[in-house]
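Q: Given only this backbone (50 positions), what sequence would you predict?
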């Protein structure tokens, strides 16, 4: 079974989050076994096995 995480919704992201913080978030997700899955016009989706 897979679970999904939406980490970015355009227009709702805190503008104070910079590239470095965003990269840190991606690294944190990777450490928790989240894998990048796809991008839509609004969302970046990650998934992992439950």
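A: Predicted residues:
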């Amino acid at each position: 079974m897979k679970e999904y995480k939406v980490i970015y919704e355009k227009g709702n992201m805190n503008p104070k989050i910079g590239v470095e913080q965003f990269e840190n978030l991606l690294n944190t997700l990777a450490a928790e076994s989240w894998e990048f899955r796809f991008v839509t016009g609004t969302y970046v989706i990650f998934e992992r096995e439950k």
